[in-house]
Amino acid sequence: MKFLHGNFLTFSSGTMFGSNA
Question: What is the pLDDT of residue 10?
Fold first, then answer.
């Protein structure tokens, strides 16, 4: 669960940053 959460967080962060940037 921890790994999945971390992966999701990274993906979400990258997507949001990429979209905003």
Answer: 75
Report the alpha-carbon distance of residue 16 to residue 21 in Å, rounded.
8
pLDDT tens digits for range 1-21? 566 666 777 777 666 665 554
* Chain centre distance of CA 18: 10
How many residues are there in the chain? 21
CA Rg, the chain, in Å? 9
Report the C-alpha gap between 4 and 7 in whole angstroms.
5
